[in-house]
Amino acid sequence: MELGAEYVDIELKVADKFLNFLSGRKPEACKLIVSFHNYEYTPSVDELLSLVDQIQATGADIVKIATSATEIDDVSRMFQVLVHCQAKQVPIIGLVMKERGFISQVLCAKYGGYLTFASLEKGKESAPGQPTVADLINKYNIRQIGPDTKVIGIIGNPVSHSKSLTVQNQAFRSVGFNGVFLPFLSDDLVKFLKTFSSPEYVGFSCTMPHKETAVRCCDYLDPIARDIGAINTIVRRPDGKLAGYNTDYTGAISAIEDAIRASQPIDPTTSPLARRLFVVIGAGGAAKAVAYGAKEKGARVVIANRTFARAQELARLIGGTALTMAELESYHPEDGMILANATSVGMYPNVNGTPLSKEALGNYSIVFDAVFVPKETRLLREAAECGIKVVNGLEMLARLVVVQFEFFTGGMPAPQRLIRDAIMTNTQ
């Protein structure tokens, strides 16, 4: 204070002692922040508001409360406190630490928070889950976030690796859409959607493990999504109802079709998948989408999965054939087969995993992997070493992000070149 600091931050536990020590000598230009930290959990709204009163009573110029998130829903309580304090004209810094609390670091700008915290560089965080200054400004465009900013994001576990975080925010900025795209790390989709149900939360990209659960959460389902039994896109309509769509199947299938067309002359009036043997590894939401899309294009679909009963269930659903993973290793009824991995095997950080041995890959002419982090999975690397045409998950992602952008923005034309370039560059 004596050296002219504009702000001094004091813990609530010692605030009274500090103010007694000052004995009224606090410089007028200096603002006193009185802080409370809870490194274990986030208290109830009533408890948080009681803390606000307690901190104000010390003579603080600015209230600061930092709690910890055990689940992402905890953040909503802090948002309620921020809104309350804004109405009462109480300056407050309200943040929730750890990865599940990350959105509080960005959306405090929407709900009237006095300021947020960021590290100067990655690895130098002063609290768990803290973003970097560069990410706040460049990725999340925090300086433009305000009360009218629409909130969109990707719900799943994990989500921090998602390319959509950078791509969608760049796309929003390029067309002047007042929205921010955030990572929603959530283990309970039903609870998340119930908690973050206000109209400004206009849409969500839905990823593992929630794609099938999401079907039950929507008031309206696109007929294709209903048939697949899994969705990856949720849009909140003006009446508050949730609509569910599946853009996975169009992204994956069009990427595989384009790869085939680029390598051989094909009748443009029919799909290059027609009558081809199309093997899908997996039986979850992504696998359902790919299998359904291949079947719609006239392919003969085979499902292989670690849990054989689930492979049988999906095969019955689409009118295909089921195999065990052991059977798949020696499966070779014909040449020119297509393989699609729709599991998370090989995804970062488990980059050494592969769903099928290199020896078995020689039976295929095209290998597609829905995993896109890393860009080249072990499956794709080994397939390429066998001289097989490969299609990575980024090709699927570029296509589905374009469709999701138009859903999230209410029909604004997507900046397709920007989206594709952003997805394809800077990916390991």
UniProtKB/TrEMBL annotation:
Residues 154-234 form the Shikimate dehydrogenase substrate binding N-terminal domain. InterPro entries: Aldolase_TIM, Aminoacid_DH-like_N_sf, DHquinase_I, NAD(P)-bd_dom_sf, Shikimate_DH-bd_N, Shikimate_DH_fam, Shikm_DH/Glu-tRNA_Rdtase. It comes from the Eukaryota. Residues 274-334 form the Quinate/shikimate 5-dehydrogenase/glutamyl-tRNA reductase domain. Pfam families: DHquinase_I (PF01487), Shikimate_DH (PF01488), Shikimate_dh_N (PF08501). Gene3D superfamilies: Aldolase class I, Leucine Dehydrogenase, chain A, domain 1, NAD(P)-binding Rossmann-like Domain. PANTHER family: SHIKIMATE DEHYDROGENASE. This is Shikimate dehydrogenase. It comes from Urochloa decumbens.
